[in-house]
Amino acid sequence: MTTNIVFVLFDNVTQLDFSGPVQFLSRLPGAKTHVVSKDGKAVTTDCGFSILPTTSVADCPQADIICVPGGHGVREAIADTAIVEFVREQAKTATWVTSVCTGTFVLGAAGLLQGKRATTHWAYTQLLPLFGATHEQARVVRDGNLVTAGGVTSGIDFALKLMALSQGEDVARTIQLALEYDPAPPFNGGHPSRTAQPLVDNLKSRVYDKAAADMDAAICAVLSATT
């Protein structure tokens, strides 16, 4: 049985939001991976290289699993009618509707977060209520067929959880072993709750205070345009 797994990409996507989950989910028995951009052309990443999709929104088959990665390009993606409508239509019959990092806000723009529990990158969680969602502090959050992941590297944990939900824990554990996912980071950190406050404050002031404000403005503009 074929499982169509659709990843929706756009310019300025965070490549690990995509490449982590796709590396794992593509190993699912029966998986057929479809990497989609609006027009089927290459999209830029935040690492300075591009990714060549396999199809366009017009030619993509129906997803069993649809996943939207994040990145600074989300600010433009949520205002792109073609991308948002594609996600909305695919989600109507997809078995699993998912996102990684700020890709959650594309689901929100498609009206898929209303009344749901969800998560996103820690620097943007306060914006989830703008789309009617309630933030749940967890690396991966499931609410019905909606599965959202926190920032960037949490996409791998998300993929493993989704594999277990869809095909059983033994399948997920086998793929985890095959890809030697045995994390042992050299530092106790990676989330504000486990990181020294001066480091958190410095990173927020340099990067995420402005990034979150820009995302807030982009979301408010989309919401204003639809009311």
Order of helices and strands: EHEEEEEHHEHEEEEHHH
Could you name the CATH homologous superfamily? Answer: Class I glutamine amidotransferase (GATase) domain
- Assign the CATH architecture: 3-Layer(aba) Sandwich
Write down the overall geometry.
Answer: globular
Percent strand? 15-25%
Average pLDDT level: 97
List unreliable stretches of 5+ residues.
none
Query: What is the CATH class?
Result: Alpha Beta
Notes on the structure:
The protein has 227 residues and is α/β, with parallel strands linked by helices. It has one domain (3-225): Rossmann fold, CATH 3.40.50. 37% of the residues lie in helices and 18% in strands. The protein is built from seven helices and eleven strands. The strands form three sheets. The chain has a seven-stranded mixed sheet with strand order 5-2-1-6-7-11-10, sandwiched between helices. A two-stranded antiparallel sheet has the order 3-4. It has a two-stranded parallel ribbon with strand order 8-9. A hairpin with a 2-residue loop joins β10 and β11. The chain starts with a strand and ends with a helix.
Write a compact overview of the structure shown.
By secondary structure, this protein is of the alpha/beta class. Helix content is 37%, strand content 18%.
Summarize the SSE layout with pairings.
Layout: E1 3-8, H1 15-25, E2 31-37, E3 43-44, E4 50-51, E5 55-56, E6 65-68, H2 74-77, H3 81-91, E7 96-100, H4 104-109, E8 117-118, E9 134-135, E10 140-143, E11 146-149, H5 154-167, H6 169-178, H7 197-225
Parallel strand pairs: 1-2, 1-6, 2-5, 6-7, 7-11, 8-9
Antiparallel strand pairs: 3-4, 10-11
